[in-house]
Design brief:
Blueprint (H helix, E strand, L loop, with lengths): L17 H6 L4 E5 L6 H18 L3 E4 L18 H15 L3 E4 L6 H5 L4 E4 L7 H9 L3 E5 L9 H10 L5 E5 L2 E2 L5 E2 L4 H6 L5 E4 L5 E2 L8 E2 L4 H11 L3 E7 L13 E2 L3 H16 L1
């Protein structure tokens, strides 16, 4: 990967002064399919998003899970094979010069995934698992920790501390909604400045915040019609980054299609978010 070729490279280190830089620049974007379904789909999605983000000068990292371990039903799609999917992530990186983001589900997966991806993402349900956080930190990669649906924003300080104290200052926090009853999530935007005060980048996971979990069918539902609303509010609240899962045909996606953004709607959304960001920093 050669990020130097990109006018707006994605930040892969968060050294002193990073916060001031972000306050005076655009938000960054983590976006792609929920899970890698194949090479052709991954490259097509990446190419489209790279074209859009280059035009809008948005720092971009391609997101794709090489495997989905947290599934409601035993017959749910989990992936095409770890190594095969990770090599596709590597190809996206080499083809388009953008970093890649993928989830890990245990400490033993950290080193393997780090051999292919630039950002290791800790799923929300695992955000308190010390061994996973430390193993991810020790790879030296950026670690993106999703806030548990069951945690307060302030409690993410302890997750961040585990990564930093393991010797890695390159950590991000991602808000993805808080459990509201059994089958809904809500985003409390008061948590954005609260987590920003911890001193590291804060990302809003727009699409997972709109999930409708624990449905009787065993398939998670969603409210994609509210993606624009949630994203606009996140930018207005001052998030550093936006996370969006997107697919050319969400209705046929093999994971989380119910809350993904249709790819052909992404550019219009990002144009609006850039305008809001410009209004805030100017």
């Amino acid at each position: 990967m050669d990020n130097k070729k990109r006018a707006t490279p994605f930040p892969l280190s968060f050294k002193e002064g990073w916060g001031e830089t972000v306050r005076n620049s655009n938000f960054f974007l983590l976006a792609g399919p929920c899970v890698i379904e194949g090479e052709e789909m991954a490259l097509q999605i990446a190419e489209r998003i790279v074209t859009i983000t280059d035009k809008l000068r948005i720092p971009y990292a391609f997101k794709g899970s090489y495997r989905k371990a947290n599934r409601s039903r035993l017959d749910s799609f989990t992936g095409i094979g770890d190594e095969k999917a990770l090599k596709i992530l590597e190809k996206v990186n080499k083809t388009f010069g953008v970093p890649t983001v993928t989830d890990i589900h245990s400490a033993s997966e950290a080193a393997m995934a780090a051999g292919y991806a630039d950002v290791l993402q800790i799923p929300a349900f695992l955000c308190r698992q010390t061994d996973i956080l430390v193993a991810a930190a020790e790879t030296g990669k950026v670690v993106n920790v999703k806030k548990g649906q069951f945690l307060s924003p302030a409690a993410m300080q302890f997750a961040v501390d585990k990564v930093v104290e393991a010797g890695n200052p390159n950590v991000m926090i991602t808000e993805r909604g808080t459990t509201f009853g059994y089958q809904d999530l809500v985003v409390d935007y008061r948590g954005i400045p609260e987590m920003k005060a911890i001193g590291y980048p804060v990302v809003l996971d727009v699409t997972h915040s709109l999930q409708k979990p624990n449905q009787s069918s065993g398939i998670t539902g969603g409210m994609p019609q509210l993606i624009e609303t949630i994203a606009k509010a996140g930018i207005a609240a001052g998030v550093d980054g936006i996370f969006i899962e997107t697919h050319s045909s969400p209705e046929t996606a093999k994971s989380d299609g119910a809350n993904m953004l249709k790819l052909d709607r992404l550019e219009d959304l990002l144009v609006k978010l850039v305008r809001i960001r410009e209004a805030i920093i100017n």
